[in-house]
Amino acid sequence: MRVFTVADFQKNIDACVGVDDAVVFDDETNLETEFIDLGLDSLAVYEVFTRLEEDLGFPIPDEDIDNLKTLSAVLKYVEGRLAEAR
After folding, report:
1. 65 Cα distance to chain centroid
2. Which of 31, 32, 56, 84 falls between 20 and 30 A from 7, CA-CA?
3. Measured between alpha carbons, how far is 4 from 85 in angstroms, rounded to an integer?
4. What is the pLDDT of residues 25-62, one digit of tens each?
5. Do residues 69 and 35 lie in contact, with contact meaning Cβ atoms separated by under 8 Å?
6. b/e sequence 53-62, b meaning 16+ C-beta within 10 Å
């Protein structure tokens, strides 16, 4: 059973914006802060989600991406999608 973690998301952020410029997520910080408030513009967010789609093996519709504004929301969404696939 696959689990999607904060570290999985962090890997995608690092690949898209670079380790030096990336927002650092961990299990206790930045989970409820909106991506825009963390310095990620909409283009960076869409790039991260494009990588996530590749990693996860399923599409994430644009309207879902537009509603996923925090890491907490992304974690819940991806876990739900993974559960549907089981």
Report:
1. 9
2. 84
3. 13
4. 766 668 999 999 888 888 989 999 999 999 999 999 99
5. yes
6. eeebeeebee
Q: Point out the least confidently predicted range of 14-18, 31-35, 37-41, 79-83.
A: 14-18
Contact 8, 55 (CB under 8 A): yes
73-to-5, 19, 20, 21, 86 alpha-carbon distances in Å? 12, 23, 25, 22, 20
Could you tell me the two tokens for 26? 């961990």
Which pair of structure tokens corresponds to residue 13? 């952020």
| Whole-structure pTM value | 0.88
pLDDT average, residue stretch 13-27:
74
Token pair for 20: 């030096």
| DSSP 8-state class, residue 22 | P
Which single residue is written with the structure tokens 């973690």? 5
